[in-house]
């Protein structure tokens, strides 16, 4: 639990930092824009404004500002009026590239925040634990040290794996993925179920032409096996279980390396057997 809290705290602290920095930067830009416009209105009809701008021609430095202030003060001009004129002159000479820098900074901060939002999120405590998904109406028991994870890149899916594998996301060595979709078909009909399973099988074959498939659509729950090679050229074995209820089709994927399939499938089947659809 301490490790989980530490991971979540790190993610949220980093995200909150960038969001706070983004807000502060936007507020500062807004304040500078308002202040610049306010000064421009105040000196619009002041006959001294063109003269002060000429006094601050070239690179504006502290010495040049002090010199202009002292000269105007020696003429008996009100100090508050001098400060307003000098401030308006400085803002009027703001380089055009400042706008480009501000826009680039906003885009960079927005990009960083979006990247942080796309970090997979742990959504359950470290197991054993009963995980309930109230949106898709199901629950299952997680083994010791397993966690549930959501990935913004696949918002409709939930992944489950050993907490020690989280740093390898989104490709976990041994994992479970649950997908759920609503359907207008009568999923209580065995004929409809077989049609859905056959359609899924046909689609998976087209997507994975090099994979070897086997099916048992008459078992409870029905499942589809296939062995393929992942992006690291390592053979892996996957099994899709299918559940039907509440007008939804639940696709329950368990996957691991082909070499560890025999030693892992018993644990994975225990998780599958705990899967329950909430009919309420």
Poorly predicted runs are 1-12
Looking at CATH, the homologous superfamily of the largest domain is Mog1/PsbP, alpha/beta/alpha sandwich
The CATH topology of the largest domain is given as: Protein Transport Mog1p, Chain A
Q: Overall 3D geometry?
A: rod-shaped
Distance between the termini: 31 Å
**Count of individual beta strands:** 11
Report strand %.
25-35%
Q: Please state the structural category.
A: alpha+beta
Report the sheet with the most strands, covering strand number, pairing sense and barrel closure: 8 strands, antiparallel
Order of helices and strands: HHHHHEEEEEEHEEEEHE
The helix tally amounts to 7
In round numbers, the mean pLDDT is 79
